[in-house]
Write a structure and sequence with these properties.
Growth Hormone, Chain: A; 7 strands; mainly alpha; two-stranded antiparallel ribbon
Length: 664
C-alpha cells in the first residue's frame, strides 16, 4: 500500500508538472508573438522618432527574421542534445535583452537636444551615426533569442506525452498563441496615445495631437513591458528537469512530429542535414511538381501578407486620417479575432467532412480567391487628398498641383522669408491646410499650446472673399465627412476578407503535407517555411517601404541636416501602389495554385483509377476461381458411392440396436 501511494503521488506530481510546463511554454510563445506584433504596431512611431524613411523601417522589421534564420538550425540541433529547458530560458533572456535594447532612446534624446546647440558640425556628424542601428540590433537579438523557444518547447513536452494527447497540447498552443498578436496591437494602441517623453515634459506645452504626423507615442514603453514579462517568464525554465518521465508504460514511444506555429520543425531540418540522404531527398522533394508549384505560390502569397501586415496600420493613418492608436486598436479587436475564428472553422471543416487533398486544395483556393475579390473592393473605399496649399491644391484652393519646391510659395508669402523645409501645419476655416503659419502669411497669434490661433493671415484673405475669417488654428484640417463612411466600409471589407482568407489556411497547410510521400513530410514543411521566410519575411517590408516612400509629398528635415520622415503622402498614389502591389502578388500566386489543383486531380484520379482496376481484376479472379472450382466439386460428387434407400434404412436400424445394447 505504501508503494502504491508513493507511485500515485509521483504520477500526480508528474501530471501537475506537465500541466505547468504546457501552460508556461504556451505563455512564453504567446509573449514572443506579443513582442513581434508590438514591433509591427510601433513602425510609425519608430519612423518618426528616428526620422527614418519607410525603407529603413522595413529593414528594421526584417532584422528579426535575419537573426532567427541565421541561428535556427544550429540552435535547434545543439538544443536537442543539451538541457532544453535551460536553453529555452537562455532564449527568453536573450529576447528580453533584445527588447530592452530596442527601446533605446535616452542617448538619442541627449544627442538631438544638446549637440545641436553646442556645435553644428558635430551635430551633422552625429546625425550620420544612425542611432536606429540600436533598434535594428535589438530586433535581430530578439530573433536569435526566439529560435529555441518554439521547436524545443514543443519537443520537450511531446517526447514524454502520450500520442493521443499531443494534438490537444498543440491545439492549446495555437489557441493561446493567437492571443499574443491581439494583445500586442492593443498594447501598441495604448502606448501610441501617450507622448514619447511623458513624465519629462509639460504636456500643456505640447502643441500637437496623436493625429498629427509629428506625434511620437511612447513606443519604448511597450518594449519595456514585454522585456520585463519575458525576463520573469524565463525564471521557471531554469529549474525544470532535463527530461520528464514518460506517461503510462510507454518506453519506446517515438517522438511525434511536432509542428510549430510558424509551420517549421527545426529539429527535423537538422536531422535531414545530418544524414547523407539529404540532397537526394531534397532533389526528390523539389522534383515533385505539385510541391514546387505550391512553394512558388506560397512565396508570392507570403510576400503580400507580410507587406499588408507590416504597413496596414500606416495605410489606415495616411488614407483615412486615423491616429496610430486607433488603427492598432481596430486591428487588434476586429481583424485578428476574425482570423482566429476563420482558422478554427477551417480546421473544423476539414475534420467534419474529411476532405481529401484535392478538396482541401479547392477549398483553400476558393476562400483565398473570395478574399482576393474583396481586396479589390478596397480600391473603391478611399479618401481624397487633404487640401494642402502648395502641395495638393493651389493657394486659391481650386486647382490641384503637382508637387514642386517652388509651388509652396505664393505672392502672399514671398516677402515673409519662410523656410520651405518647415512643417508646422495650420488649418483655415475653409478647410485648406497651410504648411506653416509663415506660409499662410500670418502676422500675429493668441492663445497657448494646442489652443494657439494665428490672425491676419494674408494668404487666407487673398484666397477667399472679403469678410471671411483670416485666422488659422494649429494642426492639419480633418478629412471630409464622407471619409468616415469610406473608412467604415473599408473596415467591414477588411474584416470579412481576413475571415474568409483564414478559412483556407488549415486546408492549404494540409495540402503541403499530403501532396508528397510521408518520408518527405518534415523536410517539406521545413523547406517551405525556410524559403517563404527568407524570400518573403526579409525583403517584403523593404521594397514595400521603398514604394511607399515614392508617394511622399513632403519630407521633414532633421535638426542637424538631412532628410527625415515623410510628413504627408499623396493618398491616391499611396492607395494605388500599396493595394496594387498586394493584389499583383496575390493574383500571380493563383496561377500556381490552379496548376497545383490540376496536378493533384490527375495524380489522385490516376491513383483512384488504378485502385479501381485492381479491385475489378481481383473480383474477376475470384469469379474465375469460383467457376473453376464448381466442375471439380461436381466430379467429386459423381465419384462418391451412392446408397439406396433400403440400405440407408438398414444402417439406421443397426445404429439404434447398438444404442439399446449400450444402455442395457
Amino acid at each position: 500500500k505504501i508503494n502504491l501511494k508513493k507511485k500515485e503521488l509521483c504520477w500526480t506530481t508528474f501530471y501537475l508538472l506537465q500541466i505547468f510546463c504546457n501552460t508556461h511554454r504556451d505563455k512564453v510563445i504567446s509573449l514572443k508573438a506579443l513582442t513581434g506584433t508590438y514591433m509591427k504596431s510601433s513602425i510609425t512611431q519608430i519612423e518618426r522618432r528616428f526620422d527614418l524613411s519607410s525603407t529603413h523601417v522595413g529593414l528594421i522589421d526584417g532584422s528579426f527574421e535575419m537573426g532567427n534564420l541565421l541561428f535556427l538550425a544550429m540552435v535547434s540541433h545543439f538544443g536537442a542534445q543539451l538541457h532544453r529547458p535551460r536553453f529555452i530560458a537562455a532564449g527568453c533572456l536573450l529576447m528580453a535583452i533584445g527588447a530592452l535594447l530596442t527601446e533605446y532612446k535616452i542617448s538619442y534624446d541627449m544627442v538631438s537636444l544638446c549637440v545641436c546647440i553646442l556645435l553644428l558640425s558635430a551635430c551633422v556628424r552625429e546625425s550620420s551615426s544612425h542611432m536606429w542601428i540600436y533598434v535594428f540590433l535589438g530586433n535581430a537579438l530578439r530573433g536569435i533569442g526566439e529560435t529555441p523557444v518554439t521547436p524545443l518547447g514543443i519537443s520537450y513536452i511531446d517526447d514524454f506525452a502520450k500520442a493521443e494527447n499531443s494534438p490537444f497540447y498543440i491545439a492549446c498552443l495555437q489557441t493561446i498563441t493567437l492571443l499574443g498578436p491581439m494583445f500586442g496591437f492593443l498594447l501598441g494602441s495604448y502606448c501610441a496615445k501617450l507622448y514619447v517623453d511623458i513624465g519629462y515634459v509639460d504636456m500643456e506645452s505640447i502643441t500637437i495631437t496623436p493625429k498629427d504626423s509629428r506625434w511620437v507615442g511612447a513606443w519604448w514603453m511597450g518594449f519595456f513591458v514585454s522585456s520585463s514579462l519575458l525576463l520573469i517568464s524565463s525564471i521557471p525554465f531554469w529549474f525544470l528537469p532535463r527530461s520528464l518521465p514518460r506517461q503510462g508504460d510507454e518506453k519506446d514511444k517515438p517522438t511525434p512530429v511536432s509542428l510549430t506555429l510558424d509551420g517549421i520543425d527545426s529539429y527535423f531540418i537538422v536531422s535531414f542535414l545530418c544524414i547523407t540522404g539529404f540532397l537526394p531527398s531534397l532533389k526528390r522533394l523539389l522534383g515533385t511538381p505539385a510541391y514546387f508549384l505550391l512553394l512558388c505560390g506560397s512565396i508570392l502569397k507570403f510576400n503580400s501578407f507580410i507587406g499588408l501586415f507590416t504597413f496596414k496600420a500606416k495605410y489606415m493613418e495616411q488614407q483615412f486620417g486615423q491616429s496610430a492608436s486607433r488603427a492598432n486598436f481596430l486591428i487588434g479587436v476586429l481583424n485578428l479575432p476574425a482570423v482566429a475564428v476563420g482558422i478554427f472553422l477551417g480546421g473544423l471543416l476539414m475534420r467534419r467532412y474529411k476532405l481529401s487533398v484535392v478538396s482541401g486544395a479547392q477549398l483553400s483556393f476558393a476562400t483565398s480567391f473570395m478574399g482576393y475579390l474583396l481586396l479589390l473592393l478596397q480600391f473603391g473605399t478611399k479618401c481624397d487628398n487633404r487640401p494642402v496649399a502648395g502641395l495638393t491644391v493651389s493657394y486659391n484652393g481650386t486647382q490641384s498641383v503637382s508637387f514642386d519646391g517652388e509651388m509652396v510659395f505664393s505672392e502672399c508669402n514671398r516677402d515673409c522669408s519662410c523656410s520651405p523645409d518647415e512643417w508646422d501645419p495650420v488649418c483655415s476655416d475653409k478647410g485648406i491646410t497651410y504648411v506653416s503659419p509663415c506660409m499662410a502669411g500670418c502676422l500675429s497669434s493668441s492663445g497657448r499650446g494646442k489652443n494657439t490661433v494665428f490672425h491676419n493671415c494674408s494668404c487666407v484673405s487673398t484666397s477667399f472673399p472679403p469678410g471671411s475669417s483670416t485666422s488659422v488654428r494649429l494642426g492639419q484640417c480633418p478629412h471630409a465627412k464622407d471619409c468616415s463612411r469610406s473608412f467604415t466600409s473599408y473596415m467591414a471589407v477588411s474584416v470579412l476578407s481576413s475571415f474568409i482568407n483564414s478559412l483556407g489556411a488549415t486546408p492549404g497547410y494540409m495540402v503541403i503535407i499530403r501532396c508528397i510521400s510521408p518520408d518527405l513530410k518534415s523536410l517539406a514543411l521545413g523547406i517551405q517555411a525556410l524559403v517563404t521566410r527568407t524570400l518573403g519575411g526579409i525583403p517584403a517590408p523593404v521594397y514595400f517601404g521603398a514604394l511607399i516612400d515614392s508617394t511622399c509629398l513632403k519630407w521633414s528635415i532633421k535638426k542637424c541636416g538631412g532628410r527625415g520622415a515623410c510628413r504627408i503622402y499623396d493618398s491616391n498614389m499611396y492607395r494605388v501602389i500599396f493595394l496594387g502591389l498586394i493584389t499583383c502578388l496575390s493574383g500571380t500566386s493563383y496561377f500556381f495554385i490552379i496548376a497545383v489543383i490540376i496536378l493533384l486531380k490527375r495524380q489522385f484520379w490516376k491513383t483512384d483509377r488504378e485502385t479501381e482496376l485492381q479491385q475489378v481484376k481481383a473480383s474477376k479472379r475470384s469469379e474465375i476461381n469460383a467457376q473453376s472450382d464448381a466442375p471439380e466439386e461436381r466430379v467429386a460428387r459423381s465419384r462418391s458411392p451412392k446408397l439406396s434407400s433400403g440400405t440407408k434404412e438398414c444402417i439406421v436400424l443397426e445404429k439404434d440396436l447398438e444404442g439399446l445394447g449400450e444402455i442395457s
